Amino acid sequence: MHLESNIRKIQVHRILAAFHLFTPVIILFFTENGLSLTQAALLQSVYTAGVLFMRRPAARLSDRYGRRIALAISGALLFASVSALSLSTQFIEFLTAQILFAAGVSLEAGSSKALLRETLQDADETGRYGEIWSKTSTYGLVSASLACLIGGLIGQESLRLVFLAMTPIYLLMIPVSLSLRSPEAERELTAETPKLREILKPEDYSLSDLARSSGEATLKSGYFLYQPFLAGIGASIGLIGVAFSAMTLTSAIGSKLAQRGKIVSGPVSAVIGATGFASLGSLGAPAAGLVGTQALARGALGSASAGKQSGRSLSRLIFIPLFPLTAASTQYFGAETVFLGLAVFLGVISLALVFKGKDQ
Q: Are 330 and 37 in contact (CB under 8 A)?
């Protein structure tokens, strides 16, 4: 097996898969097409639920047909999704496209990691897995950050054009996937993927686990509310792209620092997020620059909740009902009031973490 060639192709595949031009405009795109903010939030929750619930079926498909085919199917699903989004105008059409995208993401996430691990196993170099996957993830984050910048620039011309511009990116994933070399022996990914009922065992979670996952879900909800908030205070689509690009990198830095123990990832990160939300809620436009603090706290809390394999799944489960509720509240009470409410909620979370003494 050509080890280095496979590694490079897996990294290229990750870069392509992470190149989400729509990240800074997805909510604005939905509302521009006549959907309410609550409906747009429901679509994001459906996507999140799809990623969570399709993990095991995706692993089963990857085991049955092999990693190369699974990654190629992933590219085809992502291509179909953004193609549909570029043409859609109705809620049901957007819903179908979101489900397709979730299926593609579920396939890509599990299969690419499994293929890298098995490639290194064939070459008796499994000790390099952590280092190589960390580098691969970094490439993906840089790709995502660059995509936000470019997506914002394209979005200034047309939000629909953003999705059309993504079609060749995802189409390219298919030949890249098929050019990969299959490992001699593939592990059973299905057996390594926990069932949903195993993730949802309440006895496996402490108050700290619930607080951290709730904190991450809260910050993610605020993350998506930035789009209508920034647009509402007069920010251009290009500037929103710059803000989201900065947030992507800041979130990554926060997660990396938390993993290395460089910053406190429990109460302190929740307080950082609460401070940012309170500033946005009380100061308005001048506080827009503080959105990066949310991303830093989100990255740190995300790292902490991912300490258990099921931690990130728990935060996703909380996000599914939380974001539509937050969006609906924004429609009735205004973004500033909701940001203040999120600040209070994160303050309570920080107190819970202090009380349990589980700060890491």
A: yes
Residue 178 · residue 68 · CB < 8 Å: yes
The answer to whether residues 261 and 244 touch, using CB atoms and an 8 Å cutoff, is no
CB atoms within 10 A of CB 286: 10
Please list, in sequence order, all residues whose beta carbon lies within 8 angstroms of the beta carbon of residue 164, skipping any fewer than 6 positions away.
Answer: 82, 86
Angle at CA of residue 133, ends 129 and 139, nearest 5°: 155
Contacts of 297 (CB under 8 A, 6+ apart): 215, 219, 254, 269, 270, 272, 273, 276, 346
Burial pattern 290-299, b for ≥16 Cβ within 10 A else e, equals bbbbbbbbbb
Distance from C-alpha of 82 to C-alpha of 79, rounded to nearest angstrom? 6
CB-based contact 156:54 (threshold 8 Å): no
DSSP letter at 180 equals S
Average pLDDT of span 129-133:
83
pLDDT grade for 286, boundaries at 50, 70 and 90? very low
- The single-letter DSSP state of residue 23 is T
Amino acid identity of 270?
A: A
User: SS3 for 124?
Assistant: coil
What does pTM read for this prediction? Answer: 0.86
Instruction: Match 């993993």 to its residue by tokens.
Output: 259
Q: How far is CA 148 from CA 21, 99, 172, 352, in A?
A: 6, 22, 19, 35
Location of structure tokens 């995509």: 147
41-45, 252-256, 315-319, range with the lowest pLDDT: 252-256
Spatial contact of 328 and 45, defined as CB atoms under 8 Å apart: no
Q: Is the pLDDT of residue 141 over 50?
A: yes
Cβ-contact 249, 139 below 8 angstroms:
no
